[in-house]
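User: Can you help me understand a structure? I only have the sequence.
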Amino acid sequence: MNSKLKLLYLLLFISFSACTTDSVDDPNLPLEAVQLLDQRYGPDSRQSYDVFLPAGRDRENTPLLVYIHGGAWIDGSKDEFLEFKPLMEQFFPEYAFVSINYRLYDFISEENSFPTQEEDVILAVEEILSQLASWNISDKILLSGGSAGGHLALLHGYKHQSIGNIQAVIAFFPPTNLSTLYNFNFLTQSGLTEILEGTPDSNPDLYQSSSPITFVGPTTIPSIIFHGDADNVVPISQSEELAEKLGEFQVPHQFIVVPDQGHGFDPVTYLDLLEQASVFLRENI
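Assistant: Let's start by predicting it. Here is the structure, written out as tokens:
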């Protein structure tokens, strides 16, 4: 074989080898970031969730934060998380995130009364657990949410902590005791009477079983709670009640009163609060 032909074969072999190597994924390379939108955990159209997996994740070092939206249990969607996603990624860079929808109460049809929303969070967490290995993330889960979402995060974390190995909760201006919330004003009385199919007097068991404060005890998970002192939708007394109960059982917690803020905070405030939340979690889980 002459030298020119040998050179041609050599070049062809090098080219083929390079193409073959490039076409095979290298298992040693870090995983790329992935978004999985509108995943389902049940047959209802509201039983869906979005997944945001970070680059470089692995089973040992990538915990999961599950975000639950607000909306008085009658409105809102998982898209609420998109407002906070840049800040969450800034202060929790090692985390994967899931944002869930749940069935909402309908005043017209009177469908999806409590405990539908509680049950949907359970179903969502169970589905998430079944996907952890395929997502290549750890089984350490945090819950977070604001308003009704904060209530559902606390309720699951306190009442169903074993479903999902829940490590901690971050709650913004959450209802915590539905019996005392009922008496806040006409709107809370009207809404809770519908959603819980009665009053604290006529249906006390459901009010108790749907209130996170009922399930506080010595093994309750660490919690950080933010509440504005000018909140006229969910009174700050709801978080004060919870903080007092957590203190009685010496549960690791932090209750931060946000001066001159109502039901929802400005962007600069959220920036500061999420930084405080990241510090609290590093010190307590």
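Now, to help you interpret it: The radius of gyration is 24 Å. The beta strands are 34-40, 48-53, 64-68, 96-100, 141-146, 166-172, 223-228, 253-258. Let me know which part you'd like to focus on.
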